[in-house]
Amino acid sequence: MKLTLKIWRQKNAQAKGSMQTYSLDGVDGDMSFLEMLDVLNDQLIGKGEEPVVFDHDCREGICGSCSLQINGEPHGPDRLVTTCQLHMRKFNDGDTIVIEPFRAKAFPVIKDLMVDRSAFDRIQQAGGYISVNTSGNTIDANSIPIEKEDADESFNAATCIGCGACVAACKNASAMLFTSAKVSQFALLPQGRVEATNRVLNMVEQMDKEGFGNCTNTGACEVECPKGISLENIARMNREFLSASLKG
C-alpha cells in the first residue's frame, strides 16, 4: 500500500506544533500500526531527518502506552484493540491517515505524539491500593468467600490498562471511566471495603485536581475503550461517592 500520513509534530510542551505530511510506500497489510511508523522513522533517519516520537512498550495490548489518535479515533478504526494491535489491513491503498496525540489539558504533549499521562498515576496513588496486615497474622485471600459475579465484575474493571482512550474520546476530556474502573476493582471485593470511603473521596478529588472534565453520559468512552470497560463502573463510583460523602 501507498499511504499519505499527516502527523502532528511538536518539539515540546511549550512549542507550537503543526501537521506534517509524509508519503510512505510498500506498507504491508499485516504490519501493525506501530510497525508502519517504525518503517517511516527508518526512512526519516536515513534521510538525516528527526524521527517521529511516539510512545510504546509491550506492543501486546497490555501496557496502554501506545495511545494515538488516528483519523479522529483513539487507537484507530478497529474496536477492542490498542494502537499496537491495529493492523494496516484496516486501511486501503491510497488512504490519507491523520495521526495526532491524545488531546486533553491533563495530558500535556511531551513531544510529537507522546503525551504525559502521569495524572493517571497520581489518581491511582490517591487511593488505588489496600492496606495489608503483614504482622504475621495475615489471612490468605483465597480463604475469603466472594460471590462469583462480584469477582467477575472486579476482574473486568481491573482489565483497564490506563491508556487514556476514554479521556481522548470524551468531549469533556473526562477521566470518569478510568477512575471508576479503579474504584470498582476494589469496591466489589471485601479486601477493598476497609478503605472504600477514603478511596473514592481521594481519587475523585485528585481526578478533579488534575483538570479532567465532567462526565455527561455520552458513552464515547466505553465505545473507544480497548478493554471494553463498562459505563456501569461510573454508576457504581457515583453511588460509592455519594455514600462516602454522606458518611463524611
Describe the structure.
By secondary structure, this protein is of the alpha+beta class. The protein has 9 helices and 7 strands; from the N terminus they run ββαβββββαααααααα. α2 runs antiparallel to α7 (196-209), α3 runs antiparallel to α5 (176-187) and α5 (176-187) crosses α9. The longest helix is centred in the last third of the chain and has 16 residues, at 232-247. The chain is elongated, with a radius of gyration of 20 Å. The protein starts with a strand and ends with a helix.
In terms of quaternary structure, the protein is single chain
Mean pLDDT: 96
Strand order of the largest sheet: 2-1-5-3-4
How many domains is the backbone divided into? Answer: 2
Molecular shape: elongated
**Helix proportion of residues, in percent?**
25-40%
Number of helical stretches of at least 4 residues: 9
CATH 4th-level superfamily of the largest domain: Alpha-helical ferredoxin
Write the SSE topology.
Elements: E1 3-9, E2 18-24, H1 33-46, E3 69-70, E4 73-74, E5 96-100, E6 109-111, E7 114-115, H2 118-127, H3 148-158, H4 165-169, H5 176-187, H6 190-193, H7 196-209, H8 220-224, H9 232-247
Helix pairs in contact: 2-5, 2-7, 3-5, 5-7, 5-9, 7-9
In brief, what are we looking at here?
The chain has 248 residues and is of the alpha+beta class. The protein is built from 9 helices and 7 strands; from the N terminus they run ββαβββββαααααααα.
Question: What key attributes describe this structure?
Answer:
248 residues; Fumarate Reductase Iron-sulfur Protein, Chain B, domain 2; 2 domains; 7 strands
